[in-house]
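ingest -> validate -> predict -> emit
validate: passed (alphabet ok, no gaps, 192 aa)
predict: started
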Amino acid sequence: MDVSQLRRLKELEGENAKLKKMYAELALVRYALQDVMSKKTLSQAQRLSMCLAMQMEHGVSLRRSLTALRLSRAAPYSKPRRRNDNLLIEAMTAYLADNPGQSFGLLYEALRANGHPWGKTRLWRVYCALKMNLPRRRERQLSARPVPCMLRPVNLESTVSCGTDHGLKKRAPNGIRQSIKRRQHQQRQQGR
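emit:
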């Protein structure tokens, strides 16, 4: 080999190293792009706008950009359907106004029982969009505590019960029991 051939070989090796580096970078970018697209973090409209940008700015063909973004070949030509959720929102708010403490499951069952055709996924999407899935703070209600019996018994031998909402008989408080025992003791003393 003479000197000119060695020089040409060195140039080709340098160019080959640059091409390998470029290919590695492009492969990494393509892998990252496909990884992002596979997780469905971008909506179809966002991916279509990226496809258009790839065509205009980088000169990539439509078919290749659709393949890279994992879109179907019919995607640029299909029109998105607009969802009108007004009837659903009205039905949900009306039901929750009447039943404020009920959860999503009861809401879904009640709407289905009323003959509404909405599915669980759509109902959940609107439920979350209206931020109804957040925990609601309800007013704390005091528990129904029994009222202590403060009445003196009429007959000393009779048992004393406290009137409560649930109708259970309870023993009299300690002070009343002691006064009953004292009176019974005094009656016994007088009877001797």
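Residues 3-38 form the longest helix (36 residues).
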